[in-house]
Amino acid sequence: EPEVTQTPSHQVTQMGQEVILRCVPISNHLYFYWYRQILGQKVEFLVSFYNNEISEKSEIFDDQFSVERPDGSNFTLKIRSTKLEDSAMYFCASSERKGSNQPQHFGDGTRLSIL
Amino acid sequence: QKEVEQDPGPLSVPEGAIVSLNCTYSNSAFQYFMWYRQYSRKGPELLMYTYSSGNKEDGRFTAQVDKSSKYISLFIRDSQPSDSATYLCAMISRNSGNTPLVFGKGTRLSVIA
């Protein structure tokens, strides 16, 4: 069964450094998302992306964050100057078509640890 | 008031028991309701997806939605040790865009053999 793939599974970075999290969505999916889950808390929406543009973003997704689809398969989340509070699991998700009735499929996440 | 409330548990049941997991919500704009299962160190895996009020069954799983009470449930029949995981409810409002999911905190379930 097709799946969303995320790399790396665990990233350890010094505070202030830039980090790029990578995702390969399911191949025929057109809508992409990033969510994060701080330990012990809810999964929270960061950003959605379609047709090389951000569709929607949350308050969490401030100027230190950016997303990109550099080629036909990868979807990346960049955090420019990491902070301790950025430590979390970051999940990529994709859906096939537009609309609330299209289920979102998640990858297994990247655990980001900021030291 | 939080948008989606879910008792985090943990919930521990013997193998074969019927499990009931619940979420309440406050935003009447939510129209689509999902249950995800999350194993340790894994991403959320979609289990059930419902729109209208009523029941939807898939094997041992039944999802129930009561929009008038803003209450959703997931029932697991004949629970197995492999059902041990965190169960997340998620919901989404009616929107033509790629609208984000709003999650509950998740309920950790342990099924004891």
Tell me what you see in this structure.
The complex is a heterodimer of chains A (115) and B (113). Chain A has 115 residues and is mainly β. Helices cover 0% and strands 50% of the residues of chain A. Chain A is built from no helices and 11 strands. In chain A, the strands form 2 sheets. In chain A, strands 2, 4, 5, 6, 9, 10 and 11 form a 7-stranded mixed beta sheet that branches. A 4-stranded antiparallel beta sheet of chain A has the order 1-3-8-7, with no helix packed on it. Chain A is globular, with a radius of gyration of 13 Å. Chain A starts with a strand and ends with a strand. Chain B is an all-beta fold. Helix content of chain B is 0%, strand content 56%. Chain B has no helices and 11 strands. In chain B, strands 2, 4, 5, 9, 10 and 11 form a 6-stranded mixed beta sheet that branches. A 5-stranded antiparallel beta sheet of chain B has the order 1-3-8-7-6, with no helix packed on it. In chain B, a hairpin with an 8-residue loop joins β9 (85-93) and β10 (102-103). Chain B is globular, with a radius of gyration of 14 Å. The chains are: A mainly beta (115), B mainly beta (113). The A-B interface holds A 4, 6, 31, 33, 35, 41-45, 48-50, 55-56, 58, 91, 95, 98-109 and B 4, 31-32, 34, 36, 41-46, 49, 51, 88, 90, 92-106.
